[in-house]
Amino acid sequence: MATIREVSRLAGVSIATVSRVLNGASTVAHPTRERVLAAIATLGFKPNAFARGLATNRSGGIGVTVNEISSPYFGAFIRGVEQVVRAEGIHMMVSSGYATAALERASVDFLLERRCDGLIVQSDALDDEALIELARDGDTPVVVFGRSVAEIGSSCVVLDNELGGSLATEHLLRHGHRHIGHIAGPLSYADARDRLMGYRRALVAAGIAFDDRYVVESTFLEEGGAEAAAHLLERAPDLTAIFVANDQMAAGAMRTLRETGHAVPDDISIIGYDDVFLARYLTPTLTTVRQPLVEMGRAAADLLLERLDGERREVVHRFDPELVERQSVASAVR
């Protein structure tokens, strides 16, 4: 029985190129593909996934860990990853870690045990040392998404969340708001801390003293935003605007404002973060800070494929957020 190695020899290409043709990758040049297919036909080669994996030391799949697959935030990121790897004939497995160190570690171990060729890891609970060890000491290439770890910076794809917090707050300041609240995500998360830092930096630059009465920490979910908005209204009754650390929380906060008789944006302006799909369908539509999540997913996948194939790709490691103006912010009236 013919082997993949014999096909590569007859076609005059690498085993990896034969594997790409077998996996349907669109990046193989047409003449090369035709030579490989002709060699397969001549030799009567019948590919076997397990045998192919042994020959190439590749499984043909990568692993991705995220906080929660059901989140619209991670859905957009995963879509970007898939766009790149599917074009290369590569499949992926995704596992949720739920921001718990034990579950994040279990997700990583699960994917490694399934012989994934590489990993894209989004982690909120594993410490920097664990990520450094994973990226440096293992045989499997690793890309870290959403965390900037200096020692492995070339393996990270991140967003400037402090800049994003500043953009949101500065937008409210330009509309005349001076009593601006912030509903923060869990401050155990680096991105939540960075967004809070950006909020604080913008206030200080505008000559407004930071006041922790205007900050409420909560979960990155609709219910968290709703509860935090109620607390914020009690603590800061002179509030005229709120910067919310993600769009899901903003949706919950808007519900609380509506139920307590506060019109958005006439009474209280609100700005979110992420620009997930629901931001366009809230009433009023949500002004927010956009994370280019699909593009970041594509960048993480390109970086991982660069590590796998040794072929240089143009990869952006650090992304900037951008303001998206809609209908939920108005000029201050009190």
SSE topology:
Blueprint: H1 4-11, H2 15-22, H3 30-43, H4 49-56, E1 61-66, H5 72-87, E2 91-96, H6 101-113, E3 119-121, H7 128-137, E4 142-145, E5 156-159, H8 161-174, E6 180-184, H9 190-205, E7 215-217, H10 222-235, E8 241-244, H11 247-259, E9 269-271, E10 288-290, H12 293-309, E11 318-319, E12 322-324
Parallel strand pairs: 1-2, 1-3, 3-4, 4-5, 5-11, 6-7, 6-8, 8-9
Antiparallel strand pairs: 10-12
Helix pairs in contact: 1-2, 1-3, 5-12, 8-9, 10-11
What does this entry show, briefly?
The protein has 12 helices and 12 strands. With 334 residues, it is of the alpha/beta class.
Structure description:
The relative contact order is 0.12. The chain is elongated. Helix content is 45%, strand content 14%. The chain contains twelve helices and twelve strands. It folds into three domains: 4-56, lambda repressor-like DNA-binding domains (434 Repressor (Amino-terminal Domain), Orthogonal Bundle), CATH 1.10.260; 61-159 and 292-321, Response regulator (Rossmann fold); 161-291, Response regulator (Rossmann fold, 3-Layer(aba) Sandwich), CATH 3.40.50. The termini are far apart. The strands form three sheets. Strands 2-1-3-4-5-11 form a six-stranded parallel sheet, sandwiched between helices. It has a four-stranded parallel sheet with strand order 7-6-8-9, with helices on both faces. The model has no long low-confidence stretch (mean pLDDT 92). It has 334 residues and is α/β, with parallel strands linked by helices. The longest helix has 17 residues, at 293-309. Helix 11 links the parallel strand 8 and strand 9 (269-271).
